[in-house]
């Protein structure tokens, strides 16, 4: 399976790069993502649930960032196991460059993946469709996250507001409440 797309992000290139390397933002934006945890330098363990046609499974995998040229490009190498559902492995080349409009970034990527097990048996059209759907949802959430946050601490700030609200019986400042509500609606 091959997937190549280009998206315009509503932030400058450096901010887009920072967001693409912020695990809390990625976790909030990747559909079905349960966890992203560091596993060495530029490597992460990922847990997510995905449905491809009639096959729904929890995948555990690893992704590693290689060929890093900050804030311009990197390659993501990934592999995942979904038990009886099968496996996936592949890579994605991600490129960032200044957008056509001020303070925007053009993100383009080219991904190649292989699947095996039940996933391979359901057909490439369903697998391709599911991959495109997940990618579209990721970029929808990612763009919304970037448009709604001025800095990389926004997700952490929203979580702090929620924690403070729980500890104080639900009372929050109006500004913090709006931030938390906006963050939940994006995930």
Can you walk through the features of this model?
The protein is of the alpha+beta class and 187 residues long. The chain has two domains: 2-151, START domain (Alpha-D-Glucose-1,6-Bisphosphate, Chain A, domain 4, 2-Layer Sandwich), CATH 3.30.530; 153-187, no CATH class. The chain has six helices and seven strands. It has helices spanning 13-20, 23-29, 118-121, 124-148, 154-167, 174-186; strands at residues 2-9, 33-38, 43-52, 55-69, 73-81, 87-98, 105-116. A seven-stranded antiparallel beta sheet has the order 1-7-6-5-4-3-2. Strand 3 (43-52) and strand 4 (55-69) form a beta hairpin. The radius of gyration is 18 Å and the shape is globular. It starts with a strand and ends with a helix.
Could you give a quick summary of the protein structure above?
The protein is about 40% helix and about 40% strand.
Order of helix and strand elements from N to C terminus: EHHEEEEEEHHHH
Largest sheet features: 7 strands, antiparallel
Distance between the termini: 27 Å
Number of domains: 2
Strand content: 35-45%
Secondary structure category: alpha+beta
Mean pLDDT value: 83
Number of DSSP E strands: 7
Query: Helicity, in percent?
Result: 25-40%
Topology:
Elements (H helix, E strand, L loop, with lengths): L1 E8 L3 H8 L2 H7 L3 E6 L4 E10 L2 E15 L3 E9 L5 E12 L6 E12 L1 H4 L2 H25 L5 H14 L6 H13 L1
Antiparallel strand pairs: 1-7, 2-3, 3-4, 4-5, 5-6, 6-7
Helix pairs in contact: 2-4, 5-6
Keyword list:
187 residues, alpha+beta, 6 helices, 7 strands, globular, disordered C terminus
